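Fold it.
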Amino acid sequence: MRYWVRSESRAALLGDDDIVVGRSSYCTVILDDASISRLHARLRLEGDDVVIEDSGSRNGTFVNDVRIEAPTVVRPGDRILIGSVRVALERAPERHTPETAAHAAASVDDGETLSERSVGRA
């Protein structure tokens, strides 16, 4: 199984390689926000599970409104905050096409918030 990791402005496909989220140019998903550390969090696949781990950030990583202190399994629909930035986890189609890439990379500009589209919450 593969997953898209999305913020309102960035997206990356989680597959064989880990996704590192932060402000540094080293990161897979770069988020330019004052609440985000240079290397803030890491997401990886462990078998069929997606695991998120905070990298010792100052402002924390939250799953379903609870600050995580250890690697934590996340699922599509979970409320994920990295610092104060909402991130969504979505199942990716098994076949990667230009259309699925365009969908994942598109910013949310049709009046829906990311939470309404990806997380199912207002």
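DSSP finds two helices and eleven strands in the chain.
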